[in-house]
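Re: duplicated header lines in exported structure tokens

Our pipeline writes sequence and tokens for each protein into one text file. With two proteins the header for the second block appears twice in some exports. Here is an export where it did not happen, for reference. First protein block:
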Amino acid sequence: MNENSEKTDDYLNNNHYIHRSNWLRAAVLGANDGILSTASIAIGVAAASNLRDPVILATLAGLVAGALSMAAGEYVSVSSQTDVENADIERERIELEEMPEIELLLLAEIYEKRGLKKETALLVAKELTAHNALAAHVRDELGINEISQAKPIQAALASGASFIVGGFLPFLVVLFFPLKSMEYSLYGSALLFLIFLGILAAKAGGSSIKKAIVRIVFWGTVAMGLSALVGYLFNVNVA
């Protein structure tokens, strides 16, 4: 039985992608933000300066601050979700102790709405309640499962680390590409990085590659174009 269960889990993990959704979302968001925000900062400063040092300093500062902010933001956000989930689970535990009959009927009603006959729904609810009442209600009444359950540390690490990886790519461009027309080098390379990230994320998540590329190119162009515009409007030409 255990061997069959393991085979089933392996099959589901190899043929579906929802189990990757939490860490994949944080990693893609972090890398995308790392590339885009770091490149945008560099483009804005490069458009306003004719020296490399201010561009390097601003890009490095943006990279470090962005990674820390991204990790902290993810941790706080996902922790808040975890607090809500834990509070709901505790409330459900109390309700099961105080009014088990009502909770049983509620669980049966959920299964009936999903398509089971009334008698079958009640039978399933009784069997699942006997096995693990709290787990059944957490999964089917609250909609919390192992895949969707919030994991603050995992999200923070994935987001912060991927931001650093993503942001380091524009930083390399700032370090080694010619200063003249730096904005265009940053824009072109950032778009390539973003397209590659979009393809990678789409394949990892089993979604449309074309949609991912179009979405990334459009919003990346908007963000970096506005940053360049700000730089040109406030051109300081540091000598």
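Second protein block, exported in the same file:
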Amino acid sequence: MGFDARAARPQTGASDAAGLRDRWRAASLAGVWLRPGDWYHPAVDALVEAVGEDRCPAAAAQRLGSARGEAGVGMTEAMDDVACLFGALERPADPVVLRSLAIGWAQGYESLPMRSTVRDPASGLPSGEYLGERLRETYGAAVRQGAHAGDTHCLVVLDVALEDLDAWRRSARAATVGRTLDQVFGEGHPMAALSDGVFVVLCPRRDHTAQLAQTLRRVVEKNAAILGLAEVMRRPTRVWVETLPDSHPAAVSLLEQLAR
């Protein structure tokens, strides 16, 4: 009987893949995934096998991104989920995987017949209409305190817009910015995606607000470079502090102007 080299190899690939998938799922559900029941998709296994065996993961990642987009999963949640896969491997996220995921997500999301305008699915941030309502509350609180909203609050505006970008690049950029705004400002600061590439944060007016805006610029550019998205950001990134006008209607008009 001849020697069979294939039989001599350790048959551990399937169990290794299953173990990696389980670690990925556990990390994602613990930290980033919103609904445990819709995490699994067959493309998960394909991506696990490709990454675990050091094969090109682009096709599997694009397929998974398309499934996430079609399911209505936000781009930020999808990217954070994939980051958990590489965390389970104790490796930095692969830009090829993130790029392919974004391409697939954009294709899947574009196929949806209806979309909500309450929250931007790519960045995970609320819409300008939401921020307009939060501004109404801010102006009302200022009046009750005998103050002017422009003295108590301001807008930090971030503009990374570039023309002629593919849908996946716009989506990946929005997801990166959404994550960065959460990283820099944290909870308690109303934020919104005003348009493709323009984002706004409502902040209390403080002595360090201008410094915080510059920190935002540095972190946005750093995160974009890490993810291989520097070429889809306006360079230099524009960040500035905008003074609130005298009235709420004027503030809503300001948001509309910034969105252009």
